[in-house]
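ok here's the first one, seq then struct tokens
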Amino acid sequence: MHLLLLMNAFWSWLAQRLSPFLKPLLLELLEQEKAASVESAQSTLKQEEAVLREQLTEEISAAIAPLLQSQLAGQVHDILNTQIRVWGDRDRLHIAPTAATVNTLFNTTSGHITLGDYSFTGHNVSLLTGTHNIQKQSLARMQDYPPEGRDIVIGQGVWIGSNATVLGPCSIGDHAVVAAGAVVIAGTKVPAGAIVAGVPAKVVKMIEFEAD
């Protein structure tokens, strides 16, 4: 009985003695546990946020991709099939208001190009005034081209078929037809009302026009 009382008294005394040391330790342990819990919760939230962001990105991409693809395809189609390209001084290009071109390439580095009223081109037509000195080599050949004197003059009502190439200087008379894939070489004078075809292009027929 006396031993039990002594033991209780000892533990009571020990608790009083250790209380100043145990209380801060317990508080620190509680703060650490709380911080760990908050950090774990924040980590879980970040993971869930990342997963949600990825899901939203995939859904938005799936919804927008067809629209962008359709729009870009239309723009590429317009650029490749409806817009002319000019290599050289655009002021040297003279297209009548009633003329029509598709994706024609005009090279004006060595002369002017004139396209008359109601003349029109097919796809991938090239009208080229530029040339290079074949008697030179390497860089000298690349850089040597005449600045003028190789004009291309196309009259009224001329039809230039798809993939045809016209090299200046040359002239194409009114209402003539240049067949698809033909190459009209420099120095050619296509008569009015003629059909030219081949490489190099030559007159294959004269057109018998219908009466008005």
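and now the second one, same deal
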Amino acid sequence: MRFVPKKESKKEPLLRKDDFSSYLEEKAREMAPRDVEALLAQAEKARESAYSLSDRIGNQMSLAIELLTDHHNGECPQIPYYTISLLAEAVYYFLDPNDVIPDWIPEIGRLDDALVVELAFERGVDGVRRYCAWKGIDDSAIYPPVPLRPAAAAIADEPAPKTAKKVAKKKSTSAKSKSKAKPKAAKKKAKKAAKSPRRATAKRKSKRS
């Protein structure tokens, strides 16, 4: 018998982005206003820890804390509580050293913390953008513009394709043919109108005779 090596099955990761997203959604539903108040006591600690990871996470954490503070003080009633609860839960998760991936594990211990913060801003984007517009905050550091892909950029710079040019030519020729056809139709009507009275008078003469 011929030996056929077994195909190696791809190992799926134990935790996916969707797992963290569903966890965040579930915990955010349990968030109460009193929880937000207790969270703000650790605001400075969360901000400093976030900036130690990266400027982007630090900017997101600073904005989250500012938004939660204004919400607690009753200064931004137009922000959906869905956004409030998402951001609050993300800060709680960030501060918990014994979360899904414990913070004391070298190199990977804080990756899940950064991911949960990103997910909170991703899911609560409508409320965050509304808050930034109200406060006059530039959110480009939080939601940087997505660059065009090379193919899309090339299409944007290219002239109109040949098919579009052909369609435009067909439209112009059809418009010209219609404009030429109108005078011909008008001439035919005029000729008919000119002939019709003569026929009527000829019929009358024949009856009289």
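notes on #2: Residues 162-208 form the longest helix (47 residues). DSSP finds nine helices and no strands in the chain.
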